[in-house]
Amino acid sequence: MRLTSSAALAAAALANIAAMLVTLDVSAGGSIGTCDARSAGTAALPVIWRTPAEHSELDRWCRGVGPAIVLPAPAQPAASTPPRLHDLVVVTWNAHLAEGRLDALIAALRAGRFTAGARVERFVLLVQELYRRGPDVPLPTVDMRSAFAIKARQPDAPDAADFARTLGLSFIYVPSMRNGANVQEDRGNAVISTEPLTTAVALELPLERQRRVAVAVTIDVATPAGAKRLVLIDAHLEPLSSPRTLWLFRNPRPRQLRAIFDLAASDAFGRSEDLAGIVLGGDFNTIQGGTAEPAYALARAWSENLAAEDPRSTHLMGRLDYLFFKSHDAWRLSTRRIEQRFGSDHHPVLGRFAPE
């Protein structure tokens, strides 16, 4: 797939994606159409859903998963005032379901193992492939879709509900797909933070092979101009195309990224002048060439405030995990790979902010 340099074509593509999307605002306890999993979480933090207008097949996938888990504030706030950007650490990590030791990663982060011994008090984690099991996931029916199960070697390993209950942090988990047709498990993305979440948006990406939901939140940060909102978007892009294209002969990731860019440019998070910036992170599944493929090129071009990147592989298949940053303010983000994988098949990637 070749990238075009035409601004007109790029604008037209974004317009097409925008035309495909409808915003679905749900009050607490509500549901959309035939998919009860598009629920609002809590009255304190309703989840705004954005889903393609033509979503009958997405509904079949959505009927196989449970509702979002939303805890909008930590049990004990890290401080009474918002963090400054240079005091905030952002980490993206694919947890590989039950294999990833999320609590161990958080303990090591707090202890300063990745920050030259300096303890980390304020952070946001963008987590992919977290999983949940149990009665919140519906029983199987003939009208739902499911991914193949990724089976846990330790079936009693902590799941998303356990972490939401025990970590004491702000927590939102939005499942994308059922983890096996005949088991009550789902898997998806989570954002976990020491900071209260002030906005939550769930974006169902254009469907290719499996349903995938990007999760976006805002937190307050302190700037010289006063408190502003920092947007953080957690994405897990599709590695393969659909069977119609023999799985490999079409790259689905640029189309999914353009849907995310459209969300980032929308008014879902308020006025642009009130934003400190937008962080986009996750597992981009750039299996067809890493930084040489279009998905990376699009995200790197969008990311105007990236100072330095760690180019090393984050998975056996290459560099798949990224953090990007876009801001009107004079801040830059630098990233580096964390050496330990904490049981997952992915290395976490850590980002830190610094003034220009």
Mean pLDDT: 87
Principal-axis shape = globular
| Number of discrete domains | 1
Could you tell me how far the N terminus lies from the C terminus, measured between alpha carbons in angstroms?
35 Å
Number of helical stretches of at least 4 residues? 6
From the helix content, strand content and strand pairing, which structural class follows?
alpha+beta
Please give the CATH class.
Alpha Beta
Enumerate the strands of the largest sheet in spatial order, edge to edge or round the barrel. Answer: 3-6-7-5-4-15-14-12
CATH homologous superfamily identity? Endonuclease/exonuclease/phosphatase
Provide a descriptive summary of the structure in words.
The protein has six helices and 15 strands. The chain is an alpha+beta fold and 356 residues long. The protein has one domain: 4-Layer Sandwich (Deoxyribonuclease I, Chain A), CATH 3.60.10.10. Helix 1 crosses helix 5. The two termini are 35 Å apart. The N terminus is likely disordered.
